[in-house]
Amino acid sequence: MNEIIKKQGVNFGLILGALLAMVTVGGYAYSTEILVSYWALLYVFLVVIIMGLLVIGFSKRDLGGFISFKDAFTSYFIMLIIGMFISTLVNFLIFNVVDTDFKSVVQEKQIETIDNQREWIIGKMYDGNSSEDDIEKTNEKFDEAIEKIKSKDQYAIGEQIKGLFIGIAIMSVFGVLLALLLRRKDPSLE
Fold it and tell me: What's the predicted TM-score (pTM) here?
């Protein structure tokens, strides 16, 4: 493996890990609203994409302005694995070592958020003259979502590892797209 690719991947991975861990640390230190916010998901997505652009760009620069698809994706993937691992480790430590009671605080906030969504959606359904049957089915789906939250420890090590792999798989798709868009073949090698 090219040392430039590895170096850039590791450096940007450490930065990505710190940026992603800020969500959990901010939620713990400041407000649990952060942890249940859709804005936090958008932040995570944008940070990974922006950092992906940067790691591929810096790798390309250091390789003389040319980068293959393989090298572009490799630098992105190294960054992604390191960053997401750091974020998952911080999540695990905060929820399972530092403050185990914080799990229930976040769980209550998730349930509150779902109940607020239920209230808004059901209100819109009544306003839109939806049938009682449709409203009841929607209520049941919200009840199922709440039961799922209550019955599952999403911060257990197994769930954290599962989330890590799912996150890597999903964000790898975007890494493929970025690598395809940013690759540039060296014409002297053709």
Answer: 0.80
